[in-house]
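Exam review. A common question shows you a sequence with its structure tokens and asks you to describe the fold in words. Practice with the pair below. Do the first one on your own.
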Amino acid sequence: MNLFAQVARHTAALKEKGYCIIENALPAETIAALDADIAPRFHRTPFCEGGFYGATTKRFGRLLARTPHAEALVRHALIVSIAEQILLPWCDCIQLNTAQAIALHGGAPAQLPHRDQDMWAAAKGSAEYLVNVMWPLTPFTAENGATMIWPRSHAAAALDPDPKEAPVAIEIPPGAALLFLGSTLHAAGSNRTDDVRRGVIVGYSLGWLKPYEAQWLAYPPGMARNFDPELAALVGYRQHRPNLGNYEGQCPSVLLGAHFDPDRPLGAIDALRPDQAELLGRLAGNSPPDLSEPK
């Protein structure tokens, strides 16, 4: 099946059920190498504090700075294309919301069911704000705390007081990927084993939202300068038209130039949507402007 067909199939499943599973999204060897790279960090990281994160759970972000294998997850072509299909109706470009590793230790209780879109105090029920991807580093089972998903609890159903369907434990091996919408009710299950359940959550959000992880702090210019330009753009080194997220009136990618001089004055440069540029061109040509809604 070609990429276009795969994107269409998984996007349709997300819209219908609020989640989908991509089998064999990455080789298990890639996931194992990433897991090995971040194992020392898991060991050093303290347990979380608070009832939501959980006192038997460890979390840390900045994965693109910790292992080169994280880029394969963050820039997965199929998954990024699916996220764009879901999110681009409400934004000019998407952004990385988080890339975080999570370890659920034995005896951990089930997490509070929640919707990640509730991070943002905005209207719910129509627009989608976020697409999440859970990547298991160890097998996810019902016994060790696999992610629980409430099917069809998304979109307008997120406004209902109670979900209409029972939750499903998503049992998947390393190499598979679980995608779910920011409006989908979900939670980590309880870990009823003595083993540690490890995974990585990668999220993509609307480009004009404040992301969960402060990307410019996680990946400052000196680090992002070594990123592929598409990856740098995904973590925030691009403007969201019109002119949002600029540096001195220019695209923040200017910070990544090899000869960037912070003392050199910059002139602001328009970064407009096509409909705005067209309107500006009509005004400049003394043609009557079309003030109707953008097509």
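Now try the second one, then compare your answer with the model answer below.
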Amino acid sequence: MEALRLVALDLDGTLLRTDGSISARTRSALAMAEAAGLTLMSVTARPPRRVRQVAAHTGLRGTAICSNGGLVYDVTNDAVLRQNLLSAASASVLIESLRAAVPGVAFAVEAGIQYGCERGYVIPGEHPNDRDDPRMRRDDAVALCREGVTKLIVQHAGWPLEDLLEVTRAHAGALASVTHSGSNFVEVAAAGVTKALALEAYCAEHGIAAAQVIAFGDMPNDLPMLGWAGRGVAVANAHPDVLAAADEVTSANDHDGVALVLERLAHLGFVPSWC
């Protein structure tokens, strides 16, 4: 049997507790896995700037997969290594069609390490420093998409998330990949973009087999990644579809679910039966 080599970690709702913190036990488990030679990789819907915030108190560094697989990011050097852009033309068509179908819809845009939003878009958990960040722009969504988009974010305070997700998928068709990660908005990327494809590409470049990867997640955007990895683990607070599809269910994010699995694997020398 081969040893485990990579731990793929969704952040919000999985590694992080509900309040956004990380426990001492989980930090210790991550350090133990890293000391044993495993690569720890954030695989998240978050954009780079939000991953940097997490890195500051988790110790996660190196390479991260951001924006649901749309971007590969060097956390240590604050640099985009690779990204898959939704074209300006495709983004503009989708924006205009959603404006007609969903009056009052608002958009935000992630493009590499740049980001911006329309005046009507409400930034969840906005930090005062965000308003002064030179990479932050306030403009019409079509203008923000002029050079292509890593992730287009669709928000409407008056629409249930599932309804907004359904109408966005209907209008996107084959132009784009549409998902959500549990927040009050829908996320749109280039067609075919998923966490799984970005993780698979990284592993191929580094000679890591799927069987040598364990992945943790909680939301539907994690499903392809959990299915690709040798072991897909859902936290107990996960979406019902994720609980049904996972190879294993651990404790909730607020009860050190990731740490419990890593501690168990440490007793096996990180050479689990599926490798």
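Model answer, second protein: The CA atoms of residues 15 and 258 lie 6 Å apart. The two ends are 6 Å apart (CA to CA). Full marks require stating both points clearly.
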